[in-house]
């Protein structure tokens, strides 16, 4: 089960095909409260879907933007702490972009 979360519009790549061209300098990012609400909703949905379907699919959370890696390290640490709290047995990061 994959979830794509748009964390920020901030980006330094300027790809010609980008649909967010006018907003790439916007430093706004998801707040910790919005992350918490999103992760709880994802967890609850996944638990319900897995119960009703009779299987146990893992949850993959994909960071999208903009360019999420422009966010400060402290932001990642904070969100990963939330993820470990809400999904205690499934904390992994795939860096193969």
Protein model, in words:
Pfam families: Radical_SAM. This is Radical SAM core domain-containing protein. GO terms for molecular function: iron-sulfur cluster binding; metal ion binding; oxidoreductase activity. There is one protein chain. The protein is globular. The two termini are 19 Å apart. It has 2 helices and 2 strands. The longest helix has 22 residues, at 32-53. Helix 1 packs parallel to helix 2 (73-86). The protein has helices at residues 32-53, 73-86, and strands spanning 2-6, 60-64. The mean pLDDT is 88. By secondary structure, it is α+β, with helices and mostly antiparallel strands. The chain has one domain. Strands 1-2 form a two-stranded parallel ribbon. Helix 1 links the parallel strand 1 and strand 2.
Features:
10% strand, 97 residues, alpha+beta
Distance between the termini: 19 Å
Low-pLDDT residue spans = none
Strand order of the largest sheet: 1-2
Q: How do the helices and strands follow one another from N- to C-terminus?
A: EHEH
Number of domains: 1
How much strand content do the residues show? 5-15%
Radius of gyration: 15 Å
Number of helices: 2
Question: Helicity, in percent?
Answer: 25-40%
This entry's quaternary arrangement is: single chain
Q: How would the global form be characterised? A: globular
Structural class: alpha+beta
InterPro entries: Aldolase_TIM, rSAM, rSAM_sf, Sulphatase_maturase_rSAM
Family: Belongs to the radical SAM superfamily. Anaerobic sulfatase-maturating enzyme family.
Protein name: Radical SAM core domain-containing protein
GO molecular function: iron-sulfur cluster binding; metal ion binding; oxidoreductase activity
């Amino acid at each position: 089960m994959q979830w794509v979360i748009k964390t920020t519009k901030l980006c330094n790549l300027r790809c010609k095909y980008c649909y967010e061209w006018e907003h790439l300098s916007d430093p706004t990012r998801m707040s910790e409260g919005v992350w918490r609400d999103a992760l709880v909703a994802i967890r609850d949905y996944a638990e319900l879907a897995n119960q009703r379907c009779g299987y146990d699919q893992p949850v993959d959370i994909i960071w999208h933007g903009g360019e999420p890696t422009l966010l400060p390290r402290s932001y990642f640490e904070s969100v990963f702490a939330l993820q470990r709290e809400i999904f205690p047995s499934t904390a992994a990061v795939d860096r193969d972009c």
